[in-house]
């Protein structure tokens, strides 16, 4: 239940945060300026978090609104939550997957959580009304990003358009993005939103063997230059194994020997 009537300490907390233009408060920030004990501070944070007037990022770290919400609870936005959570761990992130698909117009689906590659945290976290799906990856898998600025002036980091397309192939199992991703790539190539060279370079840097094979076959289908495909082909290890072109369908179809794919469907 929202705490509608604020006590003296609650009013002092918001006045202190607004005076300093602070968006986050930590354990120990209030004891001296408000003249309270550590126990009183803990109880103050706890009361306001339960009332929905501040949001707990983790124990000892809280987000506060710019202005006190009138007659209702407050929740931080996605950018503030993600920036604060990852920065608190000294990490980096980039929003990816379903959110990036929607951002670049590949999908009309509006996700109910925020998917983010990062180098510190894994699993689901809920802060305020924002649910994060945090995907921990190696430092080398972060990169090829694009920044956006929110209405509140916060910078949020997304995977770039070309990186998002490559991840639609690479991380198909997590995002359910094949075979749709093939159509997105084909359309973007036709409309010159991305180039074959950029797709190849990003695939080589962030893809695995399966991504290289599938991207190679797709580029071959779209008739790109032999030179671009040779770069992918030369990076593939020698193997006689095969994988399906569409991984969600039975492994039945014609064999593409060049890429080691069972062509088990159309895009």
Would you give an account of this structure?
With 267 residues, the protein is α+β, with helices and mostly antiparallel strands. The chain has three domains: 8-63, Arc Repressor Mutant, subunit A (Orthogonal Bundle); 78-159, no CATH class; 168-263, no CATH class. It is built from eleven helices and twelve strands. It has helices at residues 8-19, 31-34, 38-51, 78-88, 97-103, 161-170, 172-175, 180-190, 196-206, 209-222, 226-235; strands at 24-26, 55-58, 61-63, 93-95, 114-118, 123-127, 130-136, 145-149, 155-159, 243-244, 254-256, 261-263. The strands form four sheets. A four-stranded mixed beta sheet has the order 4-5-7-6. A three-stranded antiparallel beta sheet has the order 1-3-2, with helices on both faces. Strands 10-12-11 form a three-stranded mixed beta sheet, with helices on one face. β11 (254-256) and β12 (261-263) form a beta hairpin. α6 crosses α9 and α9 (196-206) runs antiparallel to α10. The longest helix is centred in the N-terminal third of the chain and has 14 residues, at 38-51. The model has no long low-confidence stretch (mean pLDDT 95).
